[in-house]
């Protein structure tokens, strides 16, 4: 009879331990989800605010004249620290694409798809401006300063081929949509434990 009570007590202790373990696992998962969502929310806010701040610079004339400066503005919230500019751009674009995928995994609601699009457009614009800047540097080396009209025409042609103004407009449109649809507020509400 005592063996039976000991067995029953051990069974009850095991069940309680399993229940506590399940609750701890759920709480740990919630905490990780909270941390991941909070990190992405902060990143989204900084990129959208950066887009608003650089809105005046994101036009074709400014990009044609100061593409390195625009690249610096676009990179500033991404905390990419490499001595090689090309590696910085590649790392930043990779990070943005990864963030777009993470957004789709962290928030299942279809209305957050616009944030995923925002990350992808930001990465594409950054890469296109980098490509333009690369062409700009090559063209400047190839031509002398006396051929400035020809240089300007070639640079405009490169910008048109890369569709810089369309890419800037698309990014700004998505950033505006995020603000108008109160996506950031919805994201913030969904972060809570």
Describe this structure in words.
- The protein is 83% helix and 0% strand.
- The chain has helices spanning 2-53, 60-65, 67-75, 85-106, 113-142, 148-162, 164-180, 183-191.
- The mean pLDDT is 83.
According to DSSP, the number of beta strands is 0
Low-confidence stretches: none
Task: Based on Cα principal axes, name the global outline.
Answer: elongated
Distance between the termini: 47 Å
Largest sheet: none
Structural class: mainly alpha
Average pLDDT level: 83
Q: Strand share of the residues? A: under 5%
Helix content: over 70%
Order of helices and strands: HHHHHHHH
**CA-based gyration radius:** 25 Å
Q: Number of DSSP helices?
A: 8
Give a quick precis of the structure.
The chain has 193 residues and is mainly alpha-helical. It has 8 helices and no strands.
Annotate the secondary structure layout.
Elements: H1 2-53, H2 60-65, H3 67-75, H4 85-106, H5 113-142, H6 148-162, H7 164-180, H8 183-191
Keywords:
single chain, 193 residues, mainly alpha, 8 helices
